């Protein structure tokens, strides 16, 4: 199944949180800080007012409480508005 975002929406695949510290200490899930970085999997066509500013394959940072979480083919994704993306990680 393929998912194609509409209008100014972007489909993101969230990156996994670190499970160990740099010194090697294992972190339980309750102590892991959720990252706000993800890889762009698909983009909508944009709108007249809002042009899409990222492309498939970009690594981005997004607002902490934005988007809609979806599960597709056993994978977790996030659909956000283009304006909720705050930076491209290079």
TrEMBL record:
Q: Which domain of life is it from?
A: Bacteria
Which keywords label this protein? Chaperone, Cytoplasm
Q: Which GO terms describe its cellular component?
A: cytoplasm
Q: Drop me one GO molecular function for this one.
A: protein-folding chaperone binding
The portions of this protein that span the membrane are none
**Compartments reported by the entry:** Cytoplasm
Task: Tell me where the signal peptide lies.
Answer: none
Concerning Gene3D superfamilies, the annotation shows:
GroES chaperonin (2.30.33.40)
Which family does the similarity line name? Belongs to the GroES chaperonin family.
What is the purpose of this protein?
Together with the chaperonin GroEL, plays an essential role in assisting protein folding. The GroEL-GroES system forms a nano-cage that allows encapsulation of the non-native substrate proteins and provides a physical environment optimized to promote and accelerate protein folding. GroES binds to the apical surface of the GroEL ring, thereby capping the opening of the GroEL channel.
Q: Give the quaternary structure.
A: Heptamer of 7 subunits arranged in a ring. Interacts with the chaperonin GroEL.
The protein's matches in PANTHER family, at most eight in alphabetical order, are given as:
10 KDA HEAT SHOCK PROTEIN, 20 KDA CHAPERONIN, CHLOROPLASTIC
Task: Report the protein name in the record.
Answer: Co-chaperonin GroES
Biological source species: Treponema berlinense
């Amino acid at each position: 199944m393929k998912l194609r975002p509409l209008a100014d929406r972007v489909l993101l695949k969230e990156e996994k949180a670190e499970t160990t510290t740099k010194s090697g200490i294992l972190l339980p899930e309750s102590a892991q800080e959720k990252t706000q970085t993800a890889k762009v999997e698909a983009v909508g066509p944009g709108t007249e007012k809002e042009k899409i500013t990222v492309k498939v394959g970009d690594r981005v940072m997004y607002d902490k409480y934005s988007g809609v979480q979806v599960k597709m083919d056993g994978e977790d994704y996030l659909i956000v508005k283009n304006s909720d993306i705050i930076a491209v990680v290079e």
